[in-house]
From TrEMBL:
<dbReference type="InterPro" id="IPR013785">
    <property type="entry name" value="Aldolase_TIM"/>
</dbReference>
<dbReference type="Pfam" id="PF00977">
    <property type="entry name" value="His_biosynth"/>
</dbReference>
<dbReference type="InterPro" id="IPR050064">
    <property type="entry name" value="IGPS_HisA/HisF"/>
</dbReference>
<feature type="active site">
    <location>
        <position position="11"/>
    </location>
</feature>
<comment type="subunit">
    <text>Heterodimer of HisH and HisF.</text>
</comment>
<dbReference type="InterPro" id="IPR006062">
    <property type="entry name" value="His_biosynth"/>
</dbReference>
<dbReference type="GO" id="GO:0016829">
    <property type="term" value="F:lyase activity"/>
</dbReference>
<comment type="similarity">
    <text>Belongs to the HisA/HisF family.</text>
</comment>
<comment type="pathway">
    <text>Amino-acid biosynthesis; L-histidine biosynthesis; L-histidine from 5-phospho-alpha-D-ribose 1-diphosphate: step 5/9.</text>
</comment>
<keyword id="KW-0963">Cytoplasm</keyword>
<keyword id="KW-0368">Histidine biosynthesis</keyword>
<protein>
    <recommendedName>
        <fullName>Imidazole glycerol phosphate synthase subunit HisF</fullName>
        <ecNumber>4.3.2.10</ecNumber>
    </recommendedName>
</protein>
<dbReference type="InterPro" id="IPR011060">
    <property type="entry name" value="RibuloseP-bd_barrel"/>
</dbReference>
<dbReference type="InterPro" id="IPR004651">
    <property type="entry name" value="HisF"/>
</dbReference>
<comment type="function">
    <text>IGPS catalyzes the conversion of PRFAR and glutamine to IGP, AICAR and glutamate. The HisF subunit catalyzes the cyclization activity that produces IGP and AICAR from PRFAR using the ammonia provided by the HisH subunit.</text>
</comment>
<feature type="active site">
    <location>
        <position position="130"/>
    </location>
</feature>
<keyword id="KW-0028">Amino-acid biosynthesis</keyword>
Amino acid sequence: MLAKRLIPCLDVADGRVKKGINFVHLTDVGDPVAIAAAYQQQGADELVFLDISATNEQRQTMVDLVEQVSAQVFMPLTIGGGISSVADMQRLLKAGADKIAINSAAVANPKLIQAGAEKFGNQCIVVAIDVAWDDRRHDYRVYTHGGQQATDLTALTWAQRAVQLGAGELLVTSMDRDGTKTGFDLRLYQQLGAVVSVPIIASGGAGTLVDFVKVFDQSPVDGALAASVFHYGELTIAQVKQALKVKGVVVR
């Protein structure tokens, strides 16, 4: 059995780590380089670094900041935000990224997934999917542009398509749970796990040790991503890993 991964997420805007609730009401958390180094010391398995304003501001992800973070961090680093071409991917991988996360650009141009996978390998391409429950459709709807634009895609359909095109991993965020600390959306990840075979990272809703235990025990996800509980010191990586070990979950 592959060990489950704990993955802090750094949402960055204007060169600072931010955190909000339901993708809005962002507050400043601190310097991304210092925070990344702290997670290195805590024993995080991976780090996700998202430039959350790049797409809406129509600019590229800050390569210089990626270089600074990668100089401090020696665990796998996934970078996303404002990536719209294979050339963008190459710049970030050269700057120190291990994996590239694409979201809005992948929805607008699905062939970008295939092009990235063919150039760098499936293991380098993470398709990030932001979803919210749609009561009218009784399904999860996909959103782009930092959760600001609704699409006609459903989570399951888009996840399957992304994997067919070459995505090696899916980072799926429940916008309904984001920043709420009410627990991961287990139904969402159970449904996704039934239709795709690539690793799934659960994101949105982590608030307690029990939440981490439940998402690994009751859904097929390979990793759990969190921000608020780690950024504000409410939980440490070590505490979560110990709780998972006690429940028989294999961790690194």
